[in-house]
Amino acid sequence: MIRLAIIFILISLSLTGFSQSVDSVKKKDLVDIIFGSKREAQLNQQRSAKKVYFSILPASVNAAGGGRAVITAVNAAFYLGNPATTYLSNVYIIPVTDFSMRYGLYVKPTIWSSNNRWNFIGDYRVAYFPQYTWGLGGNSPTWDRTLINSDYFRIYQHALRKIADYLFVGPGIAIDNYYNIKETEIENTGHLDEYKIPNTGSSYTAGMMFTIAFDSRKNQLNPKQGGYVLTTLRVNSPIFGSNYNQQSLFIDGRKYLAVRRDNILGFRAFYWTVLKGDTPYLDLPSVAWAPASGIASRGIQTGRYRSNAMLYAEVEQRFELSANGLFGGVVFVNTTSVSEFSSQQFKYWHGAAGVGLRLKFNKYSDANLALDLGFSDNFWSAWINLGEMF
Description:
This protein is mainly β. The chain has a single domain, classed as Porin, CATH 2.40.160. The protein is built from 4 helices and 17 strands. The protein has a 17-stranded antiparallel β-sheet that branches. The longest helix is centred in the first third of the chain and has 14 residues.
């Protein structure tokens, strides 16, 4: 995997020659290509005057448990204040279905009030969500796989107040409700039966979140400078209706460096851990379930590793392939580790790497259509997304 990482980095460096951005070259996006040069001036005038920039993406991805999931992602991006002093707000609406065994609706708003006085971050989900699981720890065997079916309901809402330049603090609420839980495809003993904490067909956790955030990114859809650090303490308690008394901590850090104009080096790392208390099996730290924006662990299967603590790190290089900004590409490497459940020691690390293409979907919100291919030992995955993965 280390050799693969070196190869991808060398490829990315060799491609930087394609990203010669010239100020005199007009920026283009998919709308310009569809409608052609004859209507370009008129369309640009109309689009630049709009207050809300829409991007719509029909796509299909692999679904856990087999089949395909059809996704039509709608993103609305807008400013609630002077763009010079206010970050770009955006709302994702993502219906999901494979017309048989998986369906749901995700809504993910990130709202910035005028002059960034308030930042409201939400994550709302209603879904029937089958997912594979391999048990606990960083060395779980590939063959020991079962399928957990459940209905799922989530409400996460942060309300962060600006207290200094780029610094925000505030409370939030968090609710995770899994119900109609049933484990299938069991060859020996089910992982839910082996787990100490009972999941009697359902699990309900509810509590408060206390967050400190540093955010100097002007556009979260496509960050090109600045950094981001999010620290969230979650306290689940029967006071809030939770069936479990538990605390967890999540720390997420990201940094973006401009190597050249529109040639960005992005770094991300996070730590997610249970501090104390009883945690339902499906709420444990696990691959692709981190309570944060963005997509992590590309190339590693969702839920592949699970335990009471998780570490993750990633580096990605983003570059333009055309001077007008229409086409771009990325290369990335990442590594994931979950703790041994009894000790919270990190003994096993799992690497992945990949490449991706970018198509400018909306040059006014700077939203890209992202198509990525990631792979690790004995697994590969494809991702389609509106906006960057982190």
